[in-house]
Design a protein that fits this description.
With 343 residues, the protein is an alpha/beta fold. It contains 14 helices and 15 strands. α3 packs across α4 and α12 packs across α13.
Length: 343
């Protein structure tokens, strides 16, 4: 039914952006597809577009999240410091540290402490936000629809103190192998792994959840400082196909959500087409969901967009969270928290 309601062509027509001469000039200077620069200018203006592009040229520092089920954070801090790592505490993310400096050997992913499961290495602190928000004040089973390689699933399992169950699903086998490796390494016994296209889960799982995280496969446009190929990887036709899949994934995730439960929809993308547009489109197609404010504010993040270029979104997209590289010193990330209502 959803396929009949929305098509690639319709999405492409709605999201298409024609780059102007200034966008083409800036794109040539920084090595981007011109339409991407035009979008940044629509969202941020020219000056902040330059600030964003400069932020994308900077290197990111990895983050370690202590596995508190196995080791005390101060003890891990001390052991890694003795090896020559300089760590900085992340105040809004308990028991997590930014790796400021590393010795020549070992690397942060090859220490004895890592192999013993004492910590997980995240590429950036922004990826910690969705899990913290999802289970804030909550105890119960959680579904991670697109879980591999496991950063959020293992984080949630830990936040639940090893209790209840995390159902960690993914479709891509080599990523599932990484997920299972982390589960075994970190000795997490409360994660159940499933292998499926998340769009098929409503017909496969005889269970509904009060908490769901949906970190959808996306363009990764917020991670350009990590992967420079993202500057030219996604053309507008590619983006339209991704958006259609993201709409379908969100629809399926909502089918698995209990009434009054929370679903965290997130992407490592700053593209409004993959975020506010997707959520707004699904809200237009069904009458049983709404966007809610985050249950806790970890730092001074930005609000979601309510419009972009020709597009007008539902007003409540302002409740979404945006993390910008040039404002927050992290990868670009967008988060929308959705509840399912009885009507």
């Amino acid at each position: 039914m959803l396929n009949q309601l929305i098509s690639n062509d319709e999405i492409y027509r709605e999201i298409f952006v024609e780059p102007g001469e200034l966008a083409k000039k800036i794109a040539g200077e920084y090595g981007y597809l011109p339409y991407m620069i035009q979008r940044y200018m629509y969202m941020l203006g020219v000056n902040d577009t330059y600030k964003l592009l400069e932020a994308f040229e900077k290197q990111v520092k990895p983050v370690i999240r202590t596995n508190t089920l196995l080791v005390e954070p101060r003890k891990l801090y001390s052991r890694l410091s003795d090896l020559g790592f300089i760590l900085e505490e992340i105040r809004w993310a308990p028991y997590s540290f930014r790796v400021i400096e590393s010795p020549d050997s070992p690397t942060i992913g090859s220490t004895h402490e890592y192999l013993k499961g004492y910590y997980y290495v995240h590429r950036d602190p922004a990826t910690l936000i969705p899990s913290i928000i999802l289970v804030h004040g909550f105890r119960g089973d959680v579904l991670d629809c697109c879980a591999a390689p496991g950063g959020k699933a293992t984080h949630i399992a830990q936040l639940l103190n090893g209790e209840y169950h995390v159902y960690a699903n993914d479709l891509v086998l080599y990523r599932l192998r990484a997920l299972i490796g982390h589960i075994l390494r970190m000795k997490l016994g409360n994660i159940i792994v499933t292998w499926s296209d998340a769009r098929k889960l409503p017909s496969l799982l005889n269970k509904r959840f009060e908490r769901i995280i949906l970190d959808v496969p996306c363009s990764g446009e917020g991670t350009i400082m990590i992967d420079k190929t993202r500057k030219t990887k996604t053309r507008q036709s590619d983006l339209a196909r991704m958006v259609k899949r993201e709409i379908e994934l969100l629809w399926s995730g909502l089918e698995l959500l209990e009434y009054d439960g929370l679903l965290v929809y997130t992407t490592c993308s700053i593209a409004p087409e993959e975020n506010e547009y997707v959520v707004s489109k699904v809200i237009e197609l069904r009458n049983d969901i709404e966007i809610v404010d985050p249950p806790v504010k970890l730092f001074n993040w930005s609000r979601g967009l309510t419009s972009f270029h020709r597009l007008k979104f539902v007003e409540t997209t302002s409740r979404c969270i945006r993390v910008w590289p040039h404002l927050h010193g992290m990868i670009g990330l967008t988060i929308c928290i959705i509840t399912k209502t009885r009507r």
